[in-house]
Amino acid sequence: xxxxxxxxxxxxxxxxxxxxxxxxxxxxxxxxxxxxxxxxxxxxxxxxxxxxxxxxxxxxxxxxxxxxxxxxxxxxxxxxxxxxxxxxxxxxxxxxxxxxxxxxxxxxxxxxxxxxxxxxxxxxxxxxxxxxxxxxxxxxxxxxxxxxxxxxxxxxxxxxxxxxxxxxxxxxxxxxxxxxxxxxxxxxxxxxxxxxxxxxxxxxxxxxxxxxxxxxxxxxxxxxxxxxxxxxxxxxxxxxxx
Length: 242
What we know:
globular, 8 helices
């Protein structure tokens, strides 16, 4: 049985990926930091359906905690076949008003977390000469967004990191791909009014908000063995927005 580790797996896109991979028969390692109640409830729901899951608390923006997370998952399940770097936060603010602490925190949560988790997961994947790294970025990492310049920058960084990892580890049987979600119906949209959400829907050719399961379907594709010859790619799950 293969094992997938999903960072930020208790809510939103992460939760959608947890459910989708559990239903496909994976051992699912659910990482959370602050959402303990949600993580426990999700684990219990999965176990009640006869599927496999465990929860792991870690602040993946800290290297030591990211390393311990990888070690704990390997100790529990034996290996990590698929890593989904999903943990992150949003920052919606005029560019010139963003403080340095806000910028440093965003970098740590959204970009450093990907670096740290991948660094230690790859060490395990190299032992088995197999692995799938799937990074969750954003469509704004491709085209940029007003009042989200810093967020766009770190998400662009994830795209660049993915392409570099793909070249470095392809000879070792490890692929790295990136998903760039569009407007997805998660808690991150709570900062927008109903009218603003309606405008975002109007700008989306598919005429609806995306769901966490739309993103999970793309992650399942990249994790599948049929994707062996696909690496370094950026797949937009945005309903045609970009």
